Structure formats: C-alpha cells, structure tokens
Automatic annotation (TrEMBL):
Biological function: Pyridoxal 5'-phosphate (PLP)-binding protein, which is involved in PLP homeostasis.
Residues with N6-(pyridoxal phosphate)lysine modification: 36
Keywords: Pyridoxal phosphate
Domain of life: Bacteria
Protein name (Swiss-Prot/TrEMBL): Pyridoxal phosphate homeostasis protein
Organism, scientific name: Sphingopyxis granuli
Upper classification of the organism: Bacteria, Pseudomonadati, Pseudomonadota, Alphaproteobacteria, Sphingomonadales
Keyword Hydrolase: no
C-alpha cells in the first residue's frame, strides 16, 4: 500500500473502532478528507485509494483545483468547511455538494437566492460557535433558534450543525453540546471532529468528521 492508502486505512479503522465502542455503525460516519492547501498531486493518491468526500475552506482555492480533479474520477463530493462571504454564495452553491459554515442571516438569504437561481440544493449545516470565541465563525448558541427559523422562512433546508471546539480545551463537552443542540432541533447531521479528536467526536455522535493532517500530513 502507498502512504495515502495506509493513512486512509488507519483513519477509517479508528472511525470504525470508535463507532463500535459507541454502538454505532461505522458507515453512519462520513469521512471528509480536508485537502485545503494541498495540490492535485497530493490529492490524487487518496482518490485512487477510494476516498470520495473532500473538504476545502476557501471557494477560490477549491474552484482552481477541483473541476479538473473531478473530471478524473466519478462520485467526488465537495464540502465547504470554511467561512463563506455572501458575495461568493453563487460560486459556493455551484461548486460544493455541502456547505458546513452557514452562520448568519445575510448568508442564509444569499444562499437561498443562489439555490433558487441555480436550482441546486447543497446539503447545509449551520456552524455554531460552541466555545463562544470572539474571533471564531459560527452563530452564537443563543442565536441558533432564530437562525434556523430564518433559514426555514427563506426556504433553505438545514440538515445539521457543525462546530470547531476551542483549540486549547478538552473537546468532548463541546461535541456533546453540538449533539444536544442538533437533537433539540431535530437535525440529523453533526459535523464535528478533526485529526486530533475525530474518534471522540464519533463516539459522541458525529455523522461527518473533517480530517486533514492525519490523511495528508502537516500543512505548510
Ligand atoms: C483545516 C480544518 C480541518 C482539518 O484539520 P486537521 O487538524 O488538519 O485535521 C477541519 N475542519 C475545519 C473547519 C478546518 O478548517
């Protein structure tokens, strides 16, 4: 096996083990390989090893890399996991199959318009600022009910919640909080867990984990 296939097998094994410990099915967890900053040559071996879901955090970077890669393999799904400016909503809806960073009314409105105009419905997650951090994206926990209501009013179907816990804290309580918020609002999907903590996230209900470093190695 090449290195990409080895890393992929290891991450998939860890997901399966964590799912089993929690009494969950491993295939209830979608592994998103976060390919931001990595070029096509770094991404191709993972595609060859069978990986199909990829995450990027910038629309422009994704637009430069993925149309060509997509033409090389079938079944690729692209996830936007970074902050989205409202004026890039149309580009994002055109390119991505899922958007994990819906976090404010102006973006909800821009996405609703873009989805209608393009007649495309990417899967949508509301990002929640679970650690209440000033510099971080995501809607405040207290504002979540209103934002979900706004999305419903705009005709947008939100299917899940996404969070990035504070970097310097034990993540489990934040994963549990996101799971509880999703449950409370009857949302089936939870996007949580990165290279350092995805097994914990899986045990606490993640349906989507976003793993970069553990699959690609360190970013520059
Ligand atoms: C970069 C990034 C990841 C992946 O982080 P790793 O620690 O490299 O696994 C996951 N989620 C988001 C939102 C990111 O920006």
């Amino acid at each position: 096996m090449d290195q990409a296939a080895e890393r992929l097998a290891e991450v998939r094994g860890n997901i399966a083990a964590a799912a089993k410990r929690a009494g969950r099915e491993a295939d209830a967890v979608c592994l998103i390989a976060v390919s931001k900053t990595h070029d096509a040559d770094a991404i191709r071996p993972l595609i060859a090893a069978g990986q199909r879901h990829f995450g990027e955090n910038r629309v422009q970077e994704a637009a430069a890399k993925w149309p060509a890669l997509r033409a090389e393999a079938s079944g690729i799904a692209l996830h936007l996991i970074g902050r989205l400016q409202s004026n890039k909503a149309e580009d994002a809806v055109t390119l991505f199959d899922a958007i994990h960073s819906v976090d404010r009314l102006s973006l909800v409105q821009a996405l609703a318009k873009a989805c209608d105009r393009l007649d495309r419905r990417p899967r949508l997650f509301v990002q929640v600022n679970v650690g209440d951090e000033a510099q971080k994206g995501g809607c405040a926990v207290a504002d979540l009910p209103a934002l979900l209501a706004d999305a419903a009013d705009a005709g947008l179907r939100i299917e899940g919640l996404m969070a990035i816990p504070p970097a310097d804290r034990e993540p489990a309580p934040y994963f549990a909080l996101l799971d509880e918020l999703a449950e409370r609002h009857a949302l089936p999907l939870r996007s949580m867990g990165m290279s350092g903590d995805y097994p914990t996230a899986v045990m606490l209900g993640a349906t989507h984990v976003r793993v970069g470093t553990a699959l690609f190695g360190a970013r520059d």
